[in-house]
Task: structure prediction
Amino acid sequence: MGGDAGDEPGDREEVPMTERKRMTLPDLFAKVAAGAPITWLTCYDYPTAYLQDRAGVDMILVGDSLGMTMLGFDSTLPVTMDDMIRHAAAVRRGAPNAWLVGDMPYMSYQPSVETAIRNAGRFMAEAGCDSVKLEGGAEMADRVAAIARAGIPVIGHLGLTPQSVSALGGFRLQGKGAVQAKKILDDAKALEDAGAFCILLELVPDRVCALVTERAGHCIIMGLGSGPHAHGQLLIYHDAFGLYPKFTPRMAKVFADAGAVIREGLEAYVREVTEGTFPAPANWFGMKDEEYDELLRLLG
Ligand code: KIV
Result:
């Protein structure tokens, strides 16, 4: 790591990690009760986690979308539990106060209830997560119930569920027709009854999201590309900050084009090193004349 302009390369002012208090489950439910929307972003690394925690983001999802956003795969399917734990632990180090959600990757919960409990436990014990998320409806209710019984807060995920992208026929709106929409409502009820404290609705029509939210009992409904009626919003960080090179989905707003800023900076770096204008004297460290003379003498 580079130092700053002090006498020693390592001289730098320590910045407090954050002045926030740690987000708890009662805090999240208090926001819902007060009608205050919950903010939620994905995050996969330490420096971004630090920025998100300081900005006051309520919840952070270490999503298996990291397979696409960070690792360059075309889907989330190649992501492993070890990948997830590595990234989730880094995010926890950067964001000590946001409510941290570990996303259970493909085949970490589908094979059996026991596999699901063990892998959910890894997110809590090895990465310091506050909760886990898994995809699927009524067919996953037994996994949700078992994880909740193990004392781990669980989030369900309905609508567009990327781990089932082949079965769903691609990344597309879910619940457009009445029958499919009714299934989403039934699945939401099954997940809540099984003990999910929160359900994410991804890419469903706004009115379907409104109905699920209205009918929720003690369950927080979060939306991604599903309109304004949920208790809060999730966005994929790379979509919201211009950092995914392949495309920006319509459901995302680019809040700041960090990708463009970084690209400009990279071009400036290449230019300045090429032209010899970097480094400047402020960027290097000298040596006292007497030490230098002694060095020359030692070298003969
Ligand atoms: O992996 C992820 O980031 C997700 C979102 C697409 C909701 O599950």
In short: The pocket of 3-methyl-2-oxobutanoic acid is lined by residues 42, 61, 63-65, 76, 103, 162, 200, 202, 224, 234, 236 (CB under 6 Å). Residues 241 and 259 are 7 Å apart (CA to CA). The longest helix spans residues 258-275. The domain at 25-256 is CATH 3.20.20.60 (TIM Barrel).
